[in-house]
Specification:
By secondary structure, the protein is an alpha/beta fold. 59% of the residues lie in helices and 9% in strands. The protein contains seven helices and four strands. α1 packs across α2 (19-30) and α5 (72-87) packs across α6.
Amino acid sequence: MIAVDTSVWIDLFADRPTPQKRFLVSCIEQEVDEIVLIDVVLTEILRGLRETDVRRVESALADFDVLRLRTLADFRAAAGLYRAARSQGVVIRGTVDCLIAAVCIREDVPLLHSDKDFERLAELTELTTVVVS
């Protein structure tokens, strides 16, 4: 199972030729790994769309399972990830990134992304990321 960050979904829908997008497409086509969404990633994807694209994108994402933030423990864990990074001199730019990381850590699911903040979190916390070359 692999969770996919907003950054990679955006590359997919914008048809950007990134290594992460190619890896995602390969996983989907070959059904090698189960691809999952995270609830806040879905929100981030949908918020940036034009109204004319919402139905198409929602339809494309409808078949993927969704991992959800469940309890206040997830929010506490996200805040703890932010503090852990900050204590090492690393500032994570977005709270949502910490929420995504908290779900991935709780579920022990690696994250496919193209965002430096996740690499920093992976160096400093239990977050596992998918390395694509």
